[in-house]
Write a structure and sequence with these properties.
Elements (H helix, E strand, L loop, with lengths): L29 E6 L4 H16 L3 E6 L2 H8 L10 H9 L2 E5 H6 L4 H7 L2 E3 L1 H8 L4 E4 L1
Parallel strand pairs: 1-2, 1-5, 2-3, 3-4
Length: about 140
C-alpha cells in the first residue's frame, strides 16, 4: 500500500487522511457530497460541486455508494473527459473520496484498485460519524 492512500477497515472507525495537496483537516467550513449514481451527469455534477467547494477552501468529503463506487474507481486513470474525472481532480485538489465498504464488495471492486482511486473505504457507522453536523450536504 502506498504511503498516501490508506484504506480503513470498517471496524477501525477511521483512516488517516490522504494528505492531498489542499486537504486541511482543521478547516472549519465543511461540505459533504453523497454520490450513489453512476450516471454521467450525476458524476460530473458531483465533481463540479466538489471542485467548487475545494476552491472555496472548504473541507470536502465525497461519500460514494452503490454503482458510483465502481464508476469512480474505474475512471481513476481515465481521460479528462470521463464522467468521474472531475471527482478525481477534486481529490487531487484536496477533497477526500470515501467509499462505503458494502458497496465496494457489492460492486466487486478490487482492493488494489480501491486503494489507488480512493482515500478510504469505511462502513456506515463511520460515514455517519464523519458527516455528523455538516450542514452543507449534496446528493447525486
Amino acid at each position: 500500500m502506498s504511503g498516501e492512500n490508506r484504506i480503513a477497515a470498517p471496524r477501525a472507525g477511521g483512516v488517516t487522511p490522504s494528505g492531498g495537496k489542499g486537504y486541511n483537516p482543521g478547516m472549519a467550513e465543511r461540505t459533504v457530497i453523497f454520490v450513489s449514481s453512476d450516471a454521467p451527469h450525476a458524476l460530473r455534477s458531483a465533481g463540479s460541486c466538489a471542485l467548487a467547494a475545494v476552491a472555496m477552501e472548504r473541507r470536502v468529503d465525497v461519500f460514494l455508494t452503490g454503482p458510483a463506487v465502481g464508476a469512480v474507481v474505474a475512471g481513476h486513470d481515465g481521460e479528462g473527459d470521463e464522467p468521474a474525472a472531475l471527482l478525481q481532480q477534486a481529490r487531487a485538489a484536496g477533497a477526500r473520496l470515501i467509499a462505503c465498504s458494502a458497496s465496494v464488495v457489492e460492486q466487486r471492486v478490487a482492493l488494489g484498485e480501491a486503494e489507488a482511486a480512493l482515500d478510504a473505504v469505511v462502513g456506515w457507522p463511520t460515514i455517519l460519524e464523519w458527516s455528523r453536523g455538516v450542514v452543507d450536504r449534496f446528493n447525486f
